[in-house]
Amino acid sequence: MARATAGRRRGGGRAGAAARRGDAALAQMPWSIPVNIDRPIEPLSPEGVEAIHDGAMRILEEIGIVFLNPEALEIFKEAGCRVEGDLVRMDREFVMEMVGKAPDSFDITPRNPERRIPIGGNHILFGNVSSPPNYWDLELNKKVTGTQEQCRNLLKLTQYFNCIHFAGGYPVEPVDIHASVRHLDVLYDKLTLTDKVMHAYSLGKERVEDVMEMVRIAGGLSHEEFESRPHMYTNINSTSPLKHDFPMIDGCLRLVRKGQAVVVTPFTLAGAMAPVTMSGAVAQSLAESLCAIALFQYVRPGTPCAIGTFTSNVDMKSGAPAFGTPEYTRATQMTGQMARYYGLPMRSSGVCAANVPDGQAMWETSNSLWAAVQSGTNMVYHAAGWLEGGLIASPEKFIMDCEVLQQIQRYLQPQICATGPEEIALDAIREVGNDGHFFGLKHTQDRYTDAFYQPFLSDWRNYEAWEAAGAVWTPERAHKIYKDILAEFEAPPMDDAIREELGDFVARRKAEGGAPTDF
Amino acid sequence: MARATAGRRRGGGRAGAAARRGDAALAQMPWSIPVNIDRPIEPLSPEGVEAIHDGAMRILEEIGIVFLNPEALEIFKEAGCRVEGDLVRMDREFVMEMVGKAPDSFDITPRNPERRIPIGGNHILFGNVSSPPNYWDLELNKKVTGTQEQCRNLLKLTQYFNCIHFAGGYPVEPVDIHASVRHLDVLYDKLTLTDKVMHAYSLGKERVEDVMEMVRIAGGLSHEEFESRPHMYTNINSTSPLKHDFPMIDGCLRLVRKGQAVVVTPFTLAGAMAPVTMSGAVAQSLAESLCAIALFQYVRPGTPCAIGTFTSNVDMKSGAPAFGTPEYTRATQMTGQMARYYGLPMRSSGVCAANVPDGQAMWETSNSLWAAVQSGTNMVYHAAGWLEGGLIASPEKFIMDCEVLQQIQRYLQPQICATGPEEIALDAIREVGNDGHFFGLKHTQDRYTDAFYQPFLSDWRNYEAWEAAGAVWTPERAHKIYKDILAEFEAPPMDDAIREELGDFVARRKAEGGAPTDF
């Protein structure tokens, strides 16, 4: 079978050379684009798929969605939808015709073309945690408000790990930067510290336009080149139930008109802003995302869009959101099945409710990451670093998650299950016979270094050796790796002229006052 | 859809009543027999299945398996196999004919018939950790040799948790009991502290015969009743590569002749006692298990057998076994695919290499438990309590694993994905409309208490509430639950006469000297 990787390359710069010499913070897997070779888990019967589709369509036809965006309302009117005030009702024929114009896969090309990512098909890609207002690490051992320094450090992890394919929103909200200019400073940090695919928050026209301009500058692109294909994306949430606010739609329309990609991710917590039943919550989520995607396709047919899911359940005792639950897993699988029905790429997440990077954090995150694999998810948001339902970013959790992500990438390599004569290995088995072992065998020696996944964080020593080495639990090991990575981190190369142009742009926009803060 | 449970009942005794009142150590899911409703993940093409089958058959035909058991050698001779010394070669026609006689599912009925378990089909059942020589808990915070008290405490957990369906081997080896009488004391503890399906070690005729007799006595059965259907099982390992030792086969033959169940689980670590390639390790494992199953079917056609897998890889650096790895997961899936090809029930495990119940322990264990679900495993051995590659039993890990097992049980309940009009909930969505929330809705209130899985160990509070409650990490919470369970534990009911008969049997057999210790 073909190797399940594409765009493979050796790590660049001195850090890459160090990793090859073996004196780097860790030896990691090379950059690759994983291909999900498993058949998705599909919990819905064909009748179940039709029932959820019919539910989503009837929501759009009979109940309608509020769009708090006058421009969107005008467009829907022009398209023949029923608009009353800010409520829009649309027929399923319109929705399906528009959704049918969306591509089932597309590429996004960041400033380093070698970091181009394909969204859709059977690719599965991982992004860093996005948007927590708080930060926790083992040294602090408390929850604190996010800062630019922490944000930069987490961006360094985003760049460092080859298993992180794209940058999400801010890996922690740097609350020490004034909101009017925060997007300028963080995007400067993001674009200089990483060369991976960029995200823009849809929080007002200035932020969106500034980020697009900075991504264009960083890529050394003309306006025409920038608009000729996707170089970045935004991700929006609806205001569930059944509402889209002004800035999210506005931001998307701005990206769509410049040929950039859009992900629409309703946050439908079953029992809170969606029905307590999971298929109802999924149907509502689909209605909320499909109507926005229909709008974008009407504005620019063929515009790259992905359908996101953030359907989970609440804690029955407190009403607090829960993540990585059985209900979350099934909702993600159901949404994946529906995304394939609509022919749209799909986004889900790596999530947990745990407050610290302990056992609970890892079983909840493992569940959500397996749900991503099982659902045929293409973009896994928040795949590294998320704690407390998204309210905390943690570098230890980031490192731990990357260990799990690498294992998933390895799991998806078809050569593990190759069954040619060399793999069945009858001659080797014959050679060893009924005594002895396979350690010294040529068949073993020839394959030994690549035969198995090699972890960078898991400690596989026996208890005595582990104890002699200090009896270090997983989060402490992760903390040390975090510090080692920061110590050796080198930013990816960028032309001085481009760096200067970016800096000038930031300075000018700051002088102009940045963006309004009344979002 | 039908509810995915069978044999459901309320917890018995005062502890059960306490749980219903809400003042028990924890509120857990009721006893049920989970049905795996997912389609298995099948990494092998039809050609891959044939290649592994052909490999396994050629191992048996051309290389042969050593049986260090004269009785087995005589039986193979009688069956027309080629026997040279202790090496047995057998044609695939013989193997497939014999394996074809094995049932694809069977029941085992312990002393409490309400704890009867079906092995095979799409049932997935969980057993406790088995056979670690050492024990670790958070209070000790060190690895110590197992004792009878620790063994009893872990047996209490085995009984307490409804998500544990059968008892495996000793949950920790009580090294403080002399080996000659250990089986008598532990089986007395097991049979009085639990009413679930029992296991016997195949370590010499006395141990096997004693355990069978004690299970018969505990069930209040005549010899004829005992032999009329499976009441217990043994699990054996081969001595890989390609060898079966005397006592394992001897024990199986004794169980088989009394109508009891047998699980054959080769321990084929790729790169050590099996080829470094996973399909080769799987082929060898299948050869080792199928030849034993063929023997048992020849002796007693239709005898209940399951095929086990313990194929994993070693650490490339140290040669130490690794568990829950990508290679482990794929090997388990491949073996599941082959078990269905042969029409045999399948056993796998819940395993990790971690030394303490931290994040690594849970991602490795989660991986192996998801592998069990994905492979269509019927019996999940070691599903709760395993650390350090099986060398340590831990009560905290036991509690943490049971939280994960409950979530898997809930995940397998098809009602999560029900799509009737009540679940799509269009009326509820219409009622809430574009503002408000679903909390107070009748549709929500009617379903709220049962709508979502409720954990007993996960802490879903926000950071501040969690911190105010002491900032307790998962293993510490598990430790408290462990102590609470021990404090409230009540043994399942047993007739005084039976208890006395069991005690008399143990006393008599001890007086006779127990079992030889030269195994």
Question: Could you walk me through the main structural features you see in this protein, from its secondary elements to its overall organization?
Answer:
Chains A, B: Residues 1-12 have a biased composition (Basic residues). Chains A, B: It comes from Phaeobacter gallaeciensis. Chains A, B: Belongs to the trimethylamine methyltransferase family. Chains A, B: Residues 1-21 are annotated as: Disordered. The structure is a homodimer of 519-residue chains. By secondary structure, the first copy, chain A, is of the alpha/beta class. Chain A is built from 19 helices and 20 strands. Chain A folds into 2 domains: 1-30 and 432-469, no CATH class; 99-411, TIM Barrel (Alpha-Beta Barrel), CATH 3.20.20.480. Chain A has helices at 13-21, 46-63, 70-78, 92-99, 148-160, 182-193, 205-218, 223-228, 246-257, 278-299, 326-342, 359-375, 395-411, 421-424, 426-432, 442-451, 463-468, 474-488, 496-511; strands at 65-67, 82-84, 87-89, 105-108, 117-120, 125-128, 134-136, 143-145, 198-200, 232-236, 243-244, 261-264, 269-270, 305-308, 312-314, 321-322, 346-349, 379-384, 386-387, 392-393. A 7-stranded parallel β-sheet of chain A has the order 6-18-17-14-12-10-9. In chain A, strands 2-3-1-11 form a 4-stranded mixed β-sheet. A 4-stranded mixed β-sheet of chain A has the order 8-7-20-19. In chain A, helix 4 (92-99) crosses helix 10 (278-299) and helix 11 packs parallel to helix 12 (359-375). Chain A is globular, with a radius of gyration of 24 Å. Chains A and B meet through helix 2, helix 10, helix 11, helix 12 and helix 13 of A and helix 2, helix 10, helix 11, helix 12 and helix 13 of B.
